[in-house]
Amino acid sequence: MFSSASFCAIEGANLATPLALNSKSLSSNSKSCSAHFTATINNFARKRTGVLVSASGSASVDTDSGNNLPLSGLVFQPFEEVKNEAFVVPVAPHTSLARQRFQDECESAINEQINVEYNNSYLYHAMFAYFDRDNVALKGLAKFFKDSSEEERTHAEMLMGYQNMRGGRVKLHSILNPPSEFDHAEKGDALYAMELALSLEKLTNEKLLNLHAVADRCNDPQLADFIESNFLEEQVEAIKKISDYVSQLRRVGKGHGVWHFDQALLLEGGAAV
Ligand SMILES: [Fe+2]
Ligand SMILES: [Fe+2]
Questions:
Q1: Which residues have beta carbons under 5 A from ligand 1 (an ion)?
Q2: Distance, CA 235 to ligand 1 centroid (Å)?
């Protein structure tokens, strides 16, 4: 824990060392800490720019350096610049106050991605219901697809939260009814469903990359960063994970091996992501 005196000493040391203050400005042991700070900053401004900026924000020429150039544009003028039309706060009740540099194309693309995530969630939920049947009874696959369904819904909610944060409007589109049967004469149900999941995750990756391209095209680095940080890495991890499962199911065939795969999945836990 620092006393105010020790904090002042540290602050003075950090600022004074690179600025090579003269002995007069360093003689602040008889002055207050804030006086020392002000002297240090003023010295810094003088040495770096030849301009002194007062506490009120006005600038003057440092006559010592003989520089008489005009100073306009050197000082941030917040109360002038904020009068720009771009910073006027909307008053219409149905208009977002927060929206800034957020284009309609980005807003639409986010709503489309929300729809993709809900469709994924719906299909995985249908798979959960199939594998949970008493005459199928593959509990590991049932749990895997239930967790995956919830994960996709979480993705939709993350995008909804982002849409609202940027001042966009969430619009939910229709979702298609998924199949209820997943059995396949040659592949069996487990492999067929897992291959379907792999195709779906690859398609989702394409959609995410399209969304990222829209963000780039609209010069919206914040949206691009959101997609990169929260979706892109997870998506390629999901594709690898499900690819592994497809390969394992191709090895084990349709019968007894599927039961062992299912038991291993039950122990492993986790979702497709
Ligand atoms: Fe997703
Ligand atoms: Fe996914």
A1: 117, 152, 155
A2: 7
Q: From ligand 2's centre to the CA of 256, what distance in Å?
A: 28
C-alpha 123/C-alpha 120 separation (Å) is: 5
Q: Distance from the CA of 238 to the center of ligand 2, in angstroms? A: 6
User: 31 is written with which tokens?
Assistant: 């002055």
Q: List residues, by chain if needed, whose CB lies under 5 Å from ion ligand 2.
A: 238
Do 258 and 180 share a structural domain? yes
Question: Is the CB of residue 187 less than 8 Å from the CB of residue 159?
Answer: no
CA of 19 to the centre of ligand 2 (A): 54
Is residue 98 in a domain? Answer: no
Cβ atoms of 189 and 130 closer than 8 Å: yes
- pLDDT value, residue 74: 73
Query: What's the rounded mean pLDDT across residues 166-186?
Result: 97
Three-state DSSP state, 256: helix
Q: Are residues 120 and 209 in the same domain?
A: yes
CA of 239 to the centre of ligand 2 (A): 8
Q: List, for residues 112-164, the tens digit of each pLDDT value.
A: 999 999 999 999 999 999 999 999 999 999 999 999 999 999 999 999 999 99
175 CA → ligand 1 middle, Å = 15
Q: What three-state secondary structure class fits 50?
A: coil
Report the 3 state secondary structure along 93-139: CCCCCCCCCCCHHHHHHHHHHHHHHHHHHHHHHHHHHHHCCCCCCCH
Rounded Cα gap, residues 235 and 78, in angstroms: 43
User: What is the three-class DSSP state of 241?
Assistant: helix
Q: Which of 33, 60, 87 is the last residue of a domain?
A: 87
Structure-block tokens of residue 12: 């003075």
- Look up residue 29 and give its DSSP letter: G
Total domain count, the chain = 2
